[in-house]
Automatic annotation (TrEMBL), chain A:
The chain crosses the membrane at residues 7-25, 60-86, 106-134, 183-206, 218-236. One of its GO terms (cellular component) is plasma membrane. Belongs to the binding-protein-dependent transport system permease family. The lineage of its organism: Bacteria, Bacillati, Actinomycetota, Actinomycetes, Micrococcales. It is a multi-pass membrane protein. PROSITE patterns: ABC_TM1. GO terms for biological process: transmembrane transport. InterPro entries: MetI-like, MetI-like_sf. It is found in: Cell membrane. This is Nitrate/sulfonate/bicarbonate ABC transporter permease. Its main location: membrane. Gene3D superfamilies: MetI-like. It comes from the Bacteria. Keywords: Cell membrane, Membrane, Transmembrane, Transmembrane helix, Transport.
UniProtKB/TrEMBL annotation, chains B, E:
Transmembrane segments: none annotated. Keywords: ATP-binding, Nucleotide-binding, Transport. PROSITE patterns: ABC_TRANSPORTER_1 (PS00211), ABC_TRANSPORTER_2 (PS50893). Gene3D superfamilies: P-loop containing nucleotide triphosphate hydrolases. Pfam families: ABC_tran. This is ABC transporter-like protein. PANTHER family: ALIPHATIC SULFONATES IMPORT ATP-BINDING PROTEIN SSUB (PTHR42788:SF13), TAURINE IMPORT ATP-BINDING PROTEIN-RELATED (PTHR42788). GO terms for molecular function: ATP binding; ATP hydrolysis activity.
Automatic annotation (TrEMBL), chain C:
Residues 1-46 are annotated as: Disordered. Its main location: membrane. It is a multi-pass membrane protein. Keywords: Cell membrane, Membrane, Transmembrane, Transmembrane helix, Transport. Gene3D superfamilies: MetI-like. GO terms for biological process: transmembrane transport. It comes from Paeniglutamicibacter gangotriensis Lz1y. One of its GO terms (cellular component) is plasma membrane. This is ABC transporter integral membrane protein. It holds the Pfam family BPD_transp_1. SUPFAM superfamilies: MetI-like (SSF161098). It is found in: Cell membrane.
Length: 257, 285, 299, 299, 285
């Protein structure tokens, strides 16, 4: 019963949207906007074969490596920068500088420094999706309640213990917001990283389809991206409910009316 | 550096190295965008090791400010705080603080037991001893039945008792408590008062105890330090000459108890009315 | 014939009068009215010092990498060369026209994204049912790269600012939206109950309780979105070819003007730094009550 | 959508048209034509809309956002075979047909040991677009040299990045065009094969196109455009100096580079045989499933 | 549905439509991942319009829970709360609540004055009247000097007084207060007690006042409702038959005052000790 309800929530809006799309593409045909049937057909033809192995899986592999490195690196640096005021003052302008550089101009530089390799693509992914984690961690660390921080301080909880028992849990909700952003940006950058110096991958395939006017196939690739996004996000939300159990409990009790 | 209308107000001081805790000419000014706020003007007093002193004073007189300076959480604007002769510049070791904002001082992501256990764990106290200390403390504050609850699942008074249990289990050398019984009922309060005295006697801990309850200050303390209203100086530093053995029924019905509480009450009323002590009006009465 | 603004023609430089001395991108003043006494100014400029040190350190590193031969200078010119090229750019009208185009797309796109995301975020965030109902769709749409939407954008709007705007809005919308969702969920129970018990209606609660609570999250979202919007504005110009810094970068690349290209990239990064300074300024004003700001004021 | 060109004649009775172009040497004839007034002679007021390649130009033309577009022939063949109503109306540019003196080359390092197309087997070659004109012609050249054309690795890389990639050894060869060709030749490199000149005869690389809809609705505008382009191409082919003079206006090349590069030919007639040949090559390489209907594609 | 060992415990009820506030068989169970917690078992009592009742009970006995249910912030698990005969299903109009967690109930992004003003502004009270009400309320709680401070720039007691000022300025018909004086000093407490009685008499507001201070409950209330320990029932519903005119010195020295406070004290001790009332043991003493 609860499962059905959840399923209803997950599927209701997508079904409505597909229905709207279906109705609105009934009459005319636009080359760049395929009908649902055409898209479904293209999807089955394109992806339900060895492309899963040759294009999708390697991409997901790079994505996972990139996103997890970004999360870890973002949290660690964020903790440092968030807790040490002078470090924040020192690094903020440089970080802001890099944050504003578009990946398409960053990639050639990375290619210069690292050559054409998987690790270059992973670095592209990291370079883009680390920011939400980093910024949210910094802000989360800065927002720690003063009384709580004082309590930890007086009981001699410092260094790693402070991070583990105070800083991470307290900044947790905000860090989670950052991670959630990080996942989808990582996916976007996976596509962008495969637009340069590559010859396979999901992003590469989408760009190829776009260039060769295989429009239904291109959209079907985008659908795959969306589905990966949904899958990652569900895994993430499941994890989050557990990691932040106290938080959701704290916020949701007493909301009976 | 004293203005002439407010003579140097001072509590009891001790010679040389007898003092455990020394507050010397402490002044605290808060800087805000609306201008400076002089919360504490000048405080000087000593606490000797193992002393139990109560601190009373009107609301907003700087009790919390003073405690935070002693705990090394804030730097005084002028003057200094010495602990065992060493200037306090950060939270000292083996000091426990029960904050007035008890609700915000508990870690909402930890269960009650974990909250109490954390400082001990952090100190590397072995598991067995830690368990014993935590169990005893929770038992003592009457919370042995909720170790697995989160703080936000508890009532206000229960939260406050968790904070007290945490401080007691920590077995500190110096214990600072900021209105620790404000949220508990009369009976529990009496029990907790006795708990503090027991702990104090057993461990020989130095206690500075902020309270608004005048009876409580007299019942608990060996000394009651009365603060003037802000900008704060010491209104009076009163020795409580009641017998060392105290109990709720007998001690409170002693005539001397009534005398003392009357005296404290008067002094607080004076303080609230803005009366400030003269340099001469120091020491016991 | 429309002015084909190529990479601002280096042959017919039309220096803007006093552009350099007046400072092309004035740093924001950190206090209103500027009537605060000198010490305030001193403190502020002292506060910027470490940041300046960080920048200088970065530039030194950049200078060194090509100089010691990690990469060849003709592919990654040393910082000094690029800065020189950028300073030349500063005196060209066409550069400022391109910056203006990009900043226009950035500002309009970011504004639209913020307004949309705030409105939809607050509506969605305040209702458990709505949040569950839209969850899967939101998660599906978020990872769709703006660049994949380029044909659609061109189809709808042609090679005009609207195309760039669509991409900018699409990409930066999600940054703000997700932050708002989390911010709305962060409302303190006691504060909310207080508002309810004093008869504050839904709108009043959103305004007086939910909004201030979500504000720190929102500010982070806006800071994220601000740079994503800048990135997308430039990428769209780069890929679609609509006017602005991105097209200038593409032109510089295709003309082999490596220093010129990096000068533009440097300019992009500097715009990012300036945007952040402005954001920090706004944050100090709007979040002065928040523990992240006030704890620093006390220490 | 209906183009405004037919209805609204601008001042002086000129019909305004929009032409989506890429700002590269190949499209120079259109700029020369506008400069020389050939479009006005035919009653057209041409606005050249710079865009960044097929991804933007094709939807632009199909949606009526531009009346004509410029693209490489292979892309048009692919689009046509996928069902896009595209029609070639004019030649764009063509190979010089002279090995080693063409505007496109596969360049390799002098010390690479690669001397001709046959040596490219087993190598990694950068092309700017995979599954398009470059890789198919390179493969054809390798096969023409008697080697196995399926045994090469192509990687996609924007032209501007190829020089560094070759120098750093990230790739063994780069299939490049002017002006990058001339820049890369400054390093110790040489041509392994001129991939536009060698394998095919008289290759027409790019073309101007319109949509079938436009061709049906405003045949007179299309005819006028054809005539104007024909004049422009002829003039450009005969006056390379005029081409070199106009290049800095829409690319970022400096004078020195402009004078060094090899210009393509600008044929005034569409070469249907070449289109056929390219289409067959595309079919052979699996870029398309069936040959386009040449009657409709190149009427 | 009563278990046989705990008979229906009930406070005073009123016939028909005389009651302003009716609590009927209210039960509250908190669902947690560690199992259900039965905080309140069964409460029934009425308050007539313009009555001032105090609520006392051991820490964790469900006083805050009860207040939140009355304020329509939580739904009872069983039973109901009626206000003016209408079932409460959301925060009713013209009800003001002073929360136990005063610190968290003030909006940190608003200055003191704005905090107090907000509910009035929200009600559309004209500026001039609003200013007067806010000024009066701040004056009454002794905070006229800090309208431009933020709550977190105030001491604990000052914050609590801001929350009180907000409730008083709102001029509610029903006023619920959860240990509103816990953080203020004795003298301020006395002043605030008199303030509440003045406001109550002037506006005819119905007040339910939670306190841990037994003297306070007797001094303030016309009635003292004593709760048992959790799972909660009513231990006793006591009428305070002291003269209507009360003042700190005289009232507190009346022999009847001492009698009443002793009685309440005993009952709370019983409650704490786990004693539960029998069905018969109702009404006045
Ligand atoms: N962060 C702050 N910024 C500005 N002023 C402050 C700050 N903290 C405290 N004050 C001011 O300092 C004075 C003393 O405050 P403090 O909290 O020490 O009083 P207190 O004696 O603990 O009062 P209470 O008994 O009400 O808790 C008050 O006037 C208060 O407004
Ligand atoms: N959110 C919650 N989740 C689970 N249990 C809760 C929750 N809130 C309160 N309780 C439990 O309900 C009981 C009554 O709590 P309540 O806060 O009403 O007590 P109280 O009478 O106000 O106590 P105090 O005088 O200490 O404030 C307590 O045992 C408490 O642990
Ligand atoms: O949406 C982006 O393509 O970054
Ligand atoms: Mg205090
Ligand atoms: Mg309570």
């Amino acid at each position: 019963m609860r499962f059905l309800k959840t399923l209803g929530y997950v599927l209701a809006l997508p079904l409505i949207l597909v229905a709207i799309w279906w109705v609105s593409t009934l009459g005319e045909t636009n080359f760049f906007v395929p009908t649902p049937a055409l898209l479904a057909e293209a999807f089955a033809e394109t992806w339900l074969g060895d492309r899963i192995l040759s294009d999708v899986l390697p991409s997901i592999g790079r994505l996972v490596v990139g996103v997890s490195s970004a999360i870890i690196f973002g949290i660690v640096t964020g903790l440092l920068i968030g807790s040490v005021k002078w470090l924040r003052d020192l690094t903020e302008p440089v970080l802001e500088f890099f944050r504003a550089i578009p990946p398409p101009v960053l990639v050639p530089v990375l290619m210069l420094l690292m050559g054409i390799s998987d690790s270059m693509k992973v670095v592209v992914i990291i370079s883009g999706c680390i920011w939400p984690v980093l910024l949210n961690t910094i802000e989360g660390v800065r927002a720690i309640d003063g009384v709580l921080s004082d309590s930890a301080h007086t009981y001699g909880i410092q260094g790693w213990a402070r991070v583990k028992y105070l800083v991470l849990p307290s900044a947790g909700p905000q860090i989670m917001a950052g991670i959630r952003q990080c996942l989808s940006i990582g996916l976007i950058l996976m596509v962008i990283s495969e637009m340069f110096a590559s010859s396979s991958g999901l992003g590469f395939a989408i760009v190829q389809f776009q260039r060769s006017f295989a429009i239904p196939e291109m959209w079907s690739g985008i659908v795959i991206l969306g589905l990966i996004g949904v899958a990652m996000s569900f895994i993430f939300q499941w994890t989050e409910r557990r990691v932040l159990r106290w938080y959701h409990g704290l916020r949701e009790v007493e909301n009976a009316i | 550096m004293q203005s002439e209308t407010t003579p140097a107000p001072a509590g009891k001081t001790l010679p040389g190295n007898e003092a455990m805790l020394s507050v010397r000419n402490m002044k605290k000014v808060y800087k805000t965008d609306g201008g400076d706020i002089e919360a504490v003007r000048n405080l000087t007093f000593d606490l000797k090791a193992g002393e139990l002193a109560c601190l009373v004073g009107p609301s907003g007189s700087g009790k919390t400010t003073l405690l935070k300076c002693i705990a090394g959480l804030m730097a005084p604007t002028e003057g200094e705080v010495l602990l065992d002769g060493v200037k306090v510049s950060g939270p000292p070791k083996k000091m426990a603080v029960v904050f007035q904002e008890y609700g915000r001082s508990l870690f909402p992501w930890m269960r009650v037991r974990e909250n109490v256990e954390l400082p001990l764990k952090n100190q590397g106290v072995p598991k067995a001893e830690r368990d014993r200390l935590v169990d005893d403390a929770l038992e003592a504050v009457g919370l042995a039945h909720v170790p697995q609850s989160y703080p936000w699942q508890l009532s206000g008074g229960m939260q406050q008792r968790v904070a007290i249990a945490r401080a007691v289990a920590y077995q500190p050398e110096v214990l600072l408590m900021d209105e620790p019984f404000a949220a508990v009922d009369a009976q529990t309060r009496a029990d907790l008062e006795d708990l503090i005295r027991t702990v104090w006697r057993k461990l020989g801990v130095t206690v500075l105890f902020v309270t608004h309850d005048i009876d409580e200050s007299v019942y608990l303390g060996e000394r009651v330090i009365i603060l003037s209203s802000s900008p704060t100086v010491i209104q009076e530093d009163l020795t409580i000459d009641l017998p060392d053995e105290r109990d709720q029924l007998n001690t409170r019905s002693l005539p001397r108890f009534t005398e003392l509480r009357h005296h404290v009450y008067e002094q607080i009323q004076l303080a609230k009315a803005g009366h400030r002590p003269t340099a001469a009006a120091q020491a016991g009465h | 014939m429309q002015p084909l603004t190529p990479i601002f023609d280096r042959h017919s430089d039309r220096p803007l009068a006093d552009e350099k001395s007046s400072g092309p991108l004035p740093l924001p003043r950190s206090f209103p009215g500027g009537e605060k006494p000198r010490p305030g100014k001193m403190r502020r400029s002292k506060k910027q010092l470490p940041g300046l040190a960080g920048i200088i350190g970065f530039l030194l590193l950049w200078e060194l990498i090509p100089r010691v031969g990690v990469v060849e200078p003709r592919f990654l010119p040393p910082a000094s060369e690029v800065i020189a090229a950028l300073i030349t750019d500063f005196s060209l009208t066409a550069f400022w026209v391109a910056v203006g185009e990009t900043m226009l797309a950035w500002a309009i796109g970011l504004m639209m994204a913020i307004v949309l995301a705030v409105v939809l975020g607050f509506i969605t965030g305040s209702s458990m049912v709505l949040r569950k109902f839209t969850n899967s769709t939101v998660e599906f749409l978020r990872p769709i790269p703006s660049v994949a939407l380029i044909p659609l954008a061109v189809l709808l709007f042609g090679v005009k600012i609207e195309s760039t705007l669509m991409l900018v809005v699409y990409a930066s919308f999600w940054q703000v939206f997700i932050q708002v969702l989390y911010g709305v969920a962060d409302v303190d129970n006691v504060a909310m109950q207080t508002a309810k018990s004093y008869g504050l209606g839904t709108m009043a609660r959103v305004r007086h309780v939910v909004f201030p609570t979500a504000l720190p999250y929102l500010m982070t979202g806006i800071r994220l979105a601000a740079s994503v919007a800048l990135i997308l504005a430039i990428t769209a110009e780069l890929v679609i070819g609509s006017p602005g810094l991105g097209r200038e970068i593409a032109l510089a690349q295709s003309g082999g003007a490596i220093s010129g290209m990096y000068a533009l990239v440097l300019a992009t990064g500097l715009i990012g730094v300036v945007i952040n300074l402005v954001m920090r300024f706004i944050e100090r004003k709007t979040l002065s009550w928040h523990s992240s700001i006030r704890s620093e004021a006390i220490v | 959508g209906t183009s405004p060109a037919a209805k609204t004649a601008g001042e002086g009775g000129l019909t305004p048209i929009k032409v989506g172009v890429i700002t590269i040497t190949d499209a120079a004839a259109a700029y020369v034509g506008v400069d020389q007034g050939f479009f006005e002679e035919e009653g057209l007021k041409a606005e050249l809309v710079p865009a960044q390649g097929g991804a933007a130009i094709v939807p632009l033309v199909v949606s009526g956002g531009a009346d004509f577009g410029f693209s490489n022939v292979t892309s048009l063949i692919i689009g046509r075979s996928k069902g896009l109503p595209l029609q070639i109306v004019s030649a764009g540019n063509a190979t010089t047909g002279i090995e080693g003196k063409d505007f496109a080359d596969v360049l390799v390092k002098d010390d690479s040991g690669i001397e001709d197309a046959g040596d490219l087997v087993h190598k990694k070659i950068a092309v700017n677009t995979l599954n398009n004109i470059s890789d198919t012609t390179v493969r054809a050249a390798i096969e023409a040299a008697g080697a196995d054309g399926s045994n090469v690795t192509f990687v996609e890389m924007p032209f501007p990045d190829m020089r560094a990639a070759l120098a750093k050894g990230n790739v063994d060869a780069v299939a490049t065009v002017e002006p990058f060709r001339s820049m890369i030749l400054e390093d110790k490199t040489h041509s392994a094969v001129s991939n536009y000149a060698a394998p095919l005869t008289d290759l027409m690389v790019t073309a101007y196109f319109t949509s079938e809809q436009m061709a049906a609705q405003k045949p007179e505008v299309v005819e006028a455009f054809k005539r104007a382009m024909s004049k422009s191409l002829k003039y450009s082919d005969e006056h390379p100096d005029a081409v070199r003079k106009i290049l800095p206006e829409f690319t970022a090349m400096d004078d020195d580079l402009v004078n060094r590069i090899v210009l393509p030919r600008f044929p005034s007639q569409v070469n249907r045989d070449s289109v056929n040949e390219v289409a067959e090559l595309a079919l052979k390489n699996g870029l398309i499933d069936k040959l386009p209907d040449m009657e409709k594609f190149v009427p």
